[in-house]
Amino acid sequence: QVQVVESGGALVNTGDSLRLSCTASGSSFSRYTMGWFRQAPGKEREFVAADRWNTINTYYTEYADSVKGRFTVSRDNAKNMLYLQMNTLKPEDTAVYYCAVGPPGRRGSASLEYNYWGQGTQVTVSS
Known about the structure:
With 127 residues, this protein is an all-beta fold. Helix content is 0%, strand content 49%.
């Protein structure tokens, strides 16, 4: 069982920046496929970003078109931490953001690829 905990959500203004953090338990963190998803009120959960391990000890990142160029996902394997740096925030970024953990080898853009989820952290962007 992997425990996943997000933090960092807040109420911010349009154009502000915010960094979300996620910690996941387990000794294989460096090889997990890690993802960020979000769910706005009345909408389905959607993919935001993924970070997955490659066999040559590098990581591949992928982003939803709506956040590409504004959001950056990164990880610190020594701390079992995943981050989502969000810049130039917009009101449409308002949602509960979830961190997810999946096995190695997954592309990471679909929620079905993940086995463990955090409880979510609220991000509200005021106009």
